[in-house]
Design a protein that fits this description.
Elements: H1 10-18, E1 23-28, E2 31-36, E3 44-49, H2 54-63, E4 69-75, H3 88-97, E5 101-106, E6 114-119, H4 134-146, H5 164-175, H6 184-191, H7 196-202, E7 208-212, E8 215-218, H8 220-228, H9 230-239, H10 244-254
Parallel strand pairs: 3-4, 4-5
Antiparallel strand pairs: 1-2, 2-3, 5-6, 7-8
Helix pairs in contact: 5-6
């Protein structure tokens, strides 16, 4: 059964690696899927496409600057036609020469998808592998660790992503939800975001409004964002429940 969008491959890949002990998050610094495992020094990176092609291959090589554990994942479908779709042995050998891992996902109508690793990354490199750029790898790990959960679907295009920065801005907006004027210090203490003042001043999303010197309120766009990303906010309480009074405030603000 052919997939219509590459995002359909994300869920089976996420499940596959979670069963192997990885914590998985989608769309982290432009990487479709990123995984971290306790005993691993490097992140797992998977780039997803419906079909194996040159852009996917070049993308995988670029991701090797972030980690040596890079996989390319594509759908495997017997009904597909094209120059590459049936030449799995040749494609596997090409990925192996470049130090890239290759995974296929086969979708079925009546049973669960089948995920298969055709070759692991870095197994038998026959060409010089790309060196990991530590500064870029550090930024990837920072973004992964600063996100509270997995709110994006890997392979998404043209959609607003829940980044670590957006989560922090949401926490600042949540602190201002009751419509009271607050100072950056008060917002910092209530939200737990140390650089709340910078988020307020930059106002990247237009969620805040300065009403006087050092005093801010939540804008109508900010109130709308709290409703739009309510599932993210609820996820925070599942991870670290707030007090009963805080929960009442949140529910009251949505009604």
């Amino acid at each position: 059964m052919a997939v219509q969008h590459e995002t359909e491959l994300y869920a089976p890949l996420k499940k596959f690696f979670e069963e192997r002990g990885y914590l998985i998050k989608g769309e982290v610094r432009h990487c479709d899927l990123v995984g971290i495992r306790d005993n691993s020094d490097e992140p797992l990176i998977v780039e997803i496409k419906k079909t194996f092609n040159l852009p996917l291959l070049l993308q995988g090589i670029e991701r090797q600057k972030l980690s040596s554990e890079v996989y390319l994942a594509v759908e495997r479908n017997r009904t597909k036609r094209g120059a590459h779709n049936q030449r799995w042995s040749d494609i596997t050998n090409l990925c192996r020469r470049l130090g890239l891992g290759l995974i296929t996902v086969t979708q079925f109508k009546t049973k669960s998808p089948f995920v298969e690793i055709l070759c692991p990354p870095g197994g038998h490199v026959k060409a010089p592998s790309t060196k990991v750029v530590k500064a870029r790898a550090s930024k990837l790990l920072y973004e992964f660790n600063e996100r509270s959960g997995d709110y994006n679907v890997g392979g998404s295009h043209g959609t607003k992503l829940v980044t670590a920065y957006r989560e922090k801005a949401l926490r600042v907006a949540l602190a201002l939800q009751q419509g009271e004027e607050m100072s950056p210090r008060e917002i910092r203490d209530k939200s737990g975001i140390g650089h709340a003042a910078a988020i307020l001043q930059k106002d990247y999303y237009g969620w805040f409004r300065r009403v006087s010197r050092g005093r801010y309120i939540l804008s109508s766009e900010g109130a709308e964002a709290l409703s739009q990303y309510s599932s993210v906010i609820e996820g925070w309480h599942l991870i670290a429940p707030t007090s009963e009074s805080e929960m009442k405030k949140i529910k009251k603000g949505r009604s």
